[in-house]
């Protein structure tokens, strides 16, 4: 089978062969600049991205400072309102505590909720102590522990203390 191109007769098979060779050469030249292939014919991973020279990265870490409880377990008279409500109705004070902490008002009705709140407050504000100390405070001195947690939340919310540290890395 022959086709007419510019008054010349060409074999269709020859045209397709020439077209295939041309495309192969063209694509190999174009793609060779984009592929990085080592001697084993495997692609190398990109380890670093090209940059404009020296790059600087600033890492800022903000951590809330810890310490001890702002008031002691038996300093219940340091805040007169908390002392009065804690003496008359410690369950009402615990409802207020769970609300201030951002939990449901029904939380104090669950067993172990005061203990969970105390551990949560200690962990959130990075207060020194242990789970054993929290358990002892809650189960042996429940009204005092609730008063202490309310006072702590009042103190920490008023004056949140943060420690900011910045590190600069250059490459």
From TrEMBL:
The keyword Transmembrane applies. The chain crosses the membrane at residues 15-37. InterPro entries: PLAC_motif_containing. Keywords: Membrane, Transmembrane, Transmembrane helix. This is PLAC8-like protein 1. Signal peptide: none annotated. It comes from the Eukaryota. Belongs to the cornifelin family. Coiled coil: none annotated. NCBIfam families: A_thal_Cys_rich.
